[in-house]
Amino acid sequence: MATAVITGGTDGIGRALADAYLERGHEVVIVGTSTDKGKDFEAYGDRAHFLRADLSLVAENHRVLTWITERYPAVDVLVLGARFHRSTRVETPDGFESNFALFYLSRYLLSHGLAGPLGRAERPVVLNFGGSGQTGPVRWDDLQLRHDYPGTGALGHGGALCDLLGVHFSRVHPGIPYVIDHPGVVATSFAGEYDIATATFVDRLRTSGKPVAQAVAQILPFLDAPPAPLTAVLEGIRVPTDTPAFDPGDAARLHHLTEELLADRA
Ligand SMILES: NC(=O)c1ccc[n+]([C@@H]2O[C@H](COP(=O)([O-])OP(=O)(O)OC[C@H]3O[C@@H](n4cnc5c(N)ncnc54)[C@H](OP(=O)(O)O)[C@@H]3O)[C@@H](O)[C@H]2O)c1
After folding, report:
1. How far is residue 87's CA from residue 152's CA, in Å, rounded to a whole number?
2. Which domain holds residue 151?
3. What is the mean pLDDT of the chain?
4. Which protein residue's CA is at the shortest distance from atom 41 of ligand 1?
5. Ligand 1 pocket test, candidate residues 7, 10, 11, 63, most atoms within 8 A of CB
6. DSSP tag of 104
């Protein structure tokens, strides 16, 4: 039986992808923080496993990795969809800016940490919701947004980091197709803590965005048949990856900086 691991699988696009893979007969590991939402998957019986974890914490990512690798020699699908936005800059107990920790670092840890099981699958694929070249530039001198915190722009910055994560991952693991998706505005829960002005804006997005089913229909064909080791998709259309947003030198630089950050913490 094929296995899918979906972070942010309790809501929004991740939730719809979890349902899609469960309906196809996959075994699905759903990672989120809400036990209540996790219970929704009980109807699928033993094929759905809800794992409660706060992925903004490094140790929680390692716990999830251990849980998965002890049970599954192969992982066919990895979806990296957890996000939680804050209008105000917050640091996690690890000392990382919260968007950096959840939107980028967790995805870094999980994708590289599952490269072994992904490599053992017959037709593996990784989906990371990134910027698809639309959301830079990277603030190289301030990766954790200490100065002039950009509000919702923090998500875009995380997306740009995820684009570079995809570039480096597909260079070191060319046999594991990596798809980066910017789905456009989708009517989801927009999990987060917002100030009043942003909350009003986000409330409008929750209703004006495209339906989740449309976003899933736009990305599933790329997951079923990834056209290249690295594919970037914008609202269902493949976009070039030979642009500055996907610069291999920048990707290697970010990888190196991330390894240093993690080593400093250890
Ligand atoms: N919606 C859009 O318009 C849009 C636009 C561009 C990009 N995207 C990207 O698409 C992806 C999915 O977004 P969405 O809008 O569908 O998501 P969403 O409805 O906001 O749901 C967020 C998910 O992340 C999980 N999550 C939040 N904090 C977490 C934490 N600390 N640890 C683990 N899980 C956590 C939530 O789980 P719990 O509720 O269980 O905590 C939930 O399942 C994201 O990467 C997002 O950036 C979305």
Report:
1. 7
2. 3-265
3. 97
4. 33
5. 11
6. I
pTM of the model: 0.98
In the beta sheet, which residues pair with residue 224? none
Q: Give the confidence band of 265 by pLDDT, cuts at 50, 70, 90.
A: confident
Rounded to an integer, what distance in angstroms lies between the CA atom of residue 165 and that of residue 68?
21
Distance, CA of 257 to CA of 131 (rounded, Å):
20
- Atom in ligand 1 nearest the alpha carbon of residue 188: 19
Q: What is the token pair recorded at 226?
A: 């990834």
Any idea what the CATH number is for the domain that residue 23 is in?
A: 3.40.50.720
Three-state SS for 197? Answer: helix
CA distances from residue 43 to 1, 5, 40, 72 in whole angstroms, order as listed: 18, 18, 7, 22
Structural domains of the chain, count: 1
Q: Tell whether ligand 1 has an atom less than 6 A from the beta carbon of residue 10.
A: yes
d(CA 103, ligand 1 centre) in Å: 9
DSSP for 136-148, please give it: ----TT-TT--SS
196-248: pLDDT as tens digits: 999 999 999 999 999 999 999 999 999 999 999 999 999 999 999 999 999 99
C-alpha 192 – ligand 1 centre gap (Å):
9
Q: What pLDDT sits at residue 106?
A: 98
DSSP-assigned letter for residue 235: T
Q: What span, in angstroms and rounded, lies between the C-alpha atoms of 103 and 21?
A: 23
